[in-house]
Amino acid sequence: MLVNNASEAAVPDQDDTIPSGKGLATGKVGTFAGAILSIASIAPAYTTTASMGLIVAAVGLKMPALLIAGFVPMFLAAYAYREFSAETPDCGASFTWSARSLGPYAGWMAGWGAVIAVVIVLANIAAVGATFLYLFIGRLTHSETIATLGDNKLINIVTTLAFLAAAGWAASRGISSSERAQYVLVGFQLVVLLLFAGIALAKAMNGDAPSGLSFSLDWFNPLTGLTLGAFAIGLVGSVFMYWGWDTALTLGEECTDPKRTPGRAGLLSILTVLGTYLLLGVALMWYAGVGDTGIGLGGTDARNNVFGTLAEPVMGGSGELLLFLAVLVSTIASLQATFLPAARAMLAMGAFKALPQRFASVDPVCQVPRFATAVAALVAGGLYAITALLSEHVLLDTIAALGIMICWYYGITAFASVWYFRKRWFASARDAVFKLIFPLAGGTMLLVVFGISVRESLKPEIGSGASIFGIGLVFYLGFGILALGAVLMLIQRWREPEYFRGETLPRAVSGDPMPAPAEPHSHAL
């Protein structure tokens, strides 16, 4: 048995092979391992290069302030997840908890938002991986032709699909194999990112940076110099950058201590990433500035690929190779880890008949939902191919759209927590803070940002500027796909109404027993 955290008591060997009620293996993930898997899902290197430009485009020098502002609602919402997980650990997470608290329709839409957001980001991550694969090989072989292959739309799509297939296969091998690989992958990318930030900061402090900026505490103040629309769009990008910390929460049934480990791992991951982002954000902006010429973060090149633009100026030739490899490693780690919550959410929805029961199938050997994993890979590949053909800058559009989806289902889950624990609001000071004040504040912030962001996404200039019938592509990818979920929900209600009648997952309050899911189906895929 692999011991994941030296501070946690080892789980007896005989428990390692005991499946959960849905057929998943138990006793596999400790606090440190859970935090590593969450950080892998967040993928700091990938996320920074893909989305930092979106925030700068919206708020300029206020980028560090938005990194803090985006952390606040995510941190507050984290307590909703932690309290739910402590009482009823379940791989369905947002779906299961929202359905128990707010009813089947709210639960289904929260689950749909969680699943489709993860499916879309899988393709996004794979596309960045494809770009950096060719950048790394091209720089290694001194071939500009190879380095630019990722810009070729057909090659990019084919390579992205290959990345998705490989990562889906790896995620189907079992939770332990995913966990062991992540220690190396996550550790490497964090070390390289800290090295990059240190070099950039040293050059900026020594006056050897092209920006010519002087450090200012005003960079961290979100209350001045921003319009509401700019703040909302920047906040959507910032929220996206923290997304993924809840991967540990979807592994609750597979943790060494299902009641405590998931919450601790989630909080550890989000705090670690906050420090990393603030260091990177200040380093990038202080060194490069936010202008739209040269290597400025507001320029087209940096908006599309921050590290691809700044790697060589900051770290030189050999350092550039190291950073490109770190981003490539980040995408590989994130792809493997991000399949975990998507597949497990679909498994839970299938187990409670919110999706066809085929999604509840679990491989009898590896004890993972291979069918759900394969579906996630196929849908992610199809969505990416379609979006890439509609938009020249698909990453900007999908990141803006993902922020909308994240605010949606995190917000629902936060309100679900408030209502579920309503009989315990004033049982103690701790309960008042963690079961009422924190989730209520976090949910309110997220849903306000959701509403403003949907309104702003109607404008074609948001994201890449792509539009259909005069309406921004971000709106179709964000709110439009959520609306599609409502249609699919009605179809599923017509096909299998038991879940929607509250028969498989009835509404409950804190203290009510968790219903048993349908018997897991074992299928080798």
Describe it.
- With 525 residues, the chain is an all-alpha fold.
- The protein has a single domain (30-245, 264-507), classed as Amino acid/polyamine transporter I (Up-down Bundle).
- The protein starts with 30 loop residues before the first helix and ends with a strand.
- It is built from 17 helices and 4 strands.
- The model is unreliable at 1-20 and 520-525 (pLDDT under 50).
- The chain has a two-stranded parallel sheet.
- It is globular and about 65 Å long.
- The longest helix has 46 residues, at 306-351.
- Strand 2 and strand 3 (471-472) form a beta hairpin.
> Which strand-content bin applies to the residues?
under 5%
Number of helices, where a helix is a run of at least 4 consecutive DSSP H or I residues: 17
Q: Report the top-level CATH class.
A: Mainly Alpha
Q: CATH superfamily, called what? A: Amino acid/polyamine transporter I
**CATH architecture descriptor:** Up-down Bundle
Broad shape: globular
Give the helices and strands as they follow along the chain.
HHHHHHHHHHHHHEHHHEEHE
Tally of DSSP β-strands:
4
- Low-confidence stretches are 1-20, 520-525
Biggest sheet record: 2 strands, parallel
Question: What fold name goes in the CATH topology slot?
Answer: Amino acid/polyamine transporter I
Overall number of structural domains: 1
Helical percent range? 55-70%
Mean pLDDT over the residues = 81
- Spatial strand sequence of the major β-sheet: 1-4
Alpha carbon gyration radius: 22 Å
The rounded distance between the terminal residues' Cα atoms is 26 Å
**Structural class, please?**
mainly alpha
